[in-house]
Design goal:
With 319 residues, the protein is mainly beta. The chain is built from 5 helices and 21 strands. The chain has 2 domains: 139 residues, no CATH class; 105 residues, no CATH class.
């Protein structure tokens, strides 16, 4: 589940209701579709570990967990569902970005870039590494971040160097641009527009896949801040009613959720921080360890409020 589009709005299954004219006819009605297993979700003040080294900070997210067709959401299988974002404000550090580039985006053996590092200075992002497709020469690229009309991330290149020498002017003279220098055809979610990289937020982060429309990207306080959904500020409050009194939490309502050997149908589950003085450090790969180290209470409505320690405060969590 981790946290943690972007591009598509998910279609809900609709139950067809026949018109009055059809009701008066003797023809059999068309069979209705089965109910959706989408799970409504709100996440607030959560440091979401997508992997042990890739973390995003979820300030607030409203949306749903959408399982694969005819399946249910299974926390132990991050490929079993995606996170469809209605609105969200999330951020990540340069360190998490570098880990994501190395361990996920350019992780394949034949990827064109390796040993990447990221650094944020003012409003610009600098990425350094090795250009494998050119014999492993070191390179550095600096650029600004913007959102395309399609909701993609555009990394606009302002400076490039190789072997510690500026090369962008020479590249222009020779007619060589990033598109020719870096072949990204085998890298999902990455494309090139002249000297700019285009990143699809839906594919550049590990599962569960994040789906939604990116509307803003900024560098704020040394981190990359992304906004999904309405630019006008809608969705700035939690959509689901919090019945556990939690401050930092992940909440799931409706549909079916399986975690371990337990299944909730309909789901009414809230995972909350045992120490709410800081953000909730949650790791989907280690959620069972956090469950075992915590405790739960049942609500009057039959839901569960699960109090969990922060992932980074659990000792001996190795996997």
């Amino acid at each position: 589940m981790k946290f943690p589009a972007v591009a598509s709005a998910l279609s809900l299954l609709l139950i067809a209701a026949p018109s009055n004219a059809q009701q008066n006819q003797s023809k059999p009605q068309a069979p209705t579709t089965s109910p959706t297993n989408d799970v409504q979700t709100t996440m607030k003040n959560v440091r979401y570990h997508l992997t042990d080294k890739i973390t995003v900070y979820v300030h607030l997210l409203n949306g749903k967990l959408t399982p694969k067709p005819d399946q249910i959401v299974v926390f132990d299988d991050k490929q079993s569902f995606s996170i469809a974002v209605d609105s969200a404000r999330v951020s990540l550090t340069a360190t998490s970005l570098a880990n994501d580039l190395n361990d996920y985006v350019f992780a394949k053996p034949d990827a064109p870039l390796k040993k990447l590092e990221a650094k944020i200075e003012s409003d610009q992002l600098t990425v350094t590494g090795l250009l494998v497709s050119k014999g492993g020469i070191p390179f550095s690229t600096t650029g600004t971040l913007a959102v395309t009309p399609e909701g993609m991330i555009r990394v606009h290149t302002t400076k490039v160097s190789a072997l510690h020498l500026p090369v962008k002017g020479l590249m222009d003279i020779l007619g060589v641009d990033t598109e020719k220098l870096v072949d990204t055809k085998k890298v999902p979610g990455v494309s090139v527009d002249k000297d700019d990289l285009i990143l699809d937020p839906q594919y550049i982060l590990p599962p569960p896949q994040l789906q939604g429309h990116l509307t803003s990207i900024q560098i704020i306080n040394g981190e990359i801040a992304l906004t999904f959904g309405d630019k006008k500020g809608k969705g700035s409050e939690p959509v689901l009613t919090n019945t556990c009194g939690a401050q930092n939490y992940l909440q799931f309502k409706g549909g079916t959720v399986r975690f371990g050997n337990l299944t909730m149908d309909p789901a009414d589950l809230l995972l909350e921080d045992m120490q709410p003085t800081d953000s909730f450090d949650f790791a989907i790969n280690h959620y069972k360890e956090q469950l075992v180290a915590g405790y739960s209470k049942m609500t009057q409505q039959g839901g569960l409020c699960v109090h969990m320690p922060d992932f980074d405060k659990i000792k001996h969590h190795t996997k």
